[in-house]
Task: structure prediction
Amino acid sequence: MDDSISYTWPIMPKYKVCEHDKYGIRKNHYVLFKTREHSGFDITADYGTEVKSMAKGKVIFTGFDGTTTEGLEQFNMGYGNIIEILNDDGRRCIYGHLSEILVKEGDKVNNNTIIGKTGCTGGSRVPHLHIEIRRTNTNETGLKNTINPLDVLPKLDFSKINLKYTTEPYSELWKKMASEENPWDFTEEDIWYEEDKRYIK
Ligand SMILES: [Zn+2]
Result:
């Protein structure tokens, strides 16, 4: 176990960070529409952005987590296409909602090894990367088993990251989530209802 490993950003945040993206308690989850823990940090991204490993480690799992569905009546759930990496410091890192997985179990990775591409698979309504850092090598998620990724990643001045996400059909929901006045004021009505292959693995 190496406590001195350093963490790097898997993709550089480009779009404004919404309340919904942050680690902690979400007041209105955009799949469940109720209060729910968020055990990671979400980085809104252009579909297909290359995702890099945040630290040195080994790939311990790749696969799909969730329900493949069509439409909102049968919610997509879970991490979608997921990569799990056991970092050399003993923590497990999760990369979720990917469109592509470019590593396999057993692969060794370093900071900035390209491991996959961003997407909108699983419980995702705007293309983004979900990153999660578990305190130990555990299957258990939840706030008590994780740390805030911002505690170990290089500091960024989020006030300078202000780009608006404009890609259709996701931008209307994103705009509500990015609202200064009431970032939790979105409903099922704001979700793209028609079949969108990009939601599905
Ligand atoms: Zn997330």
Confidence is low (pLDDT under 50) at residues 69-74. The first helix runs from residue 171 to 177. The two ends are 35 Å apart (CA to CA).
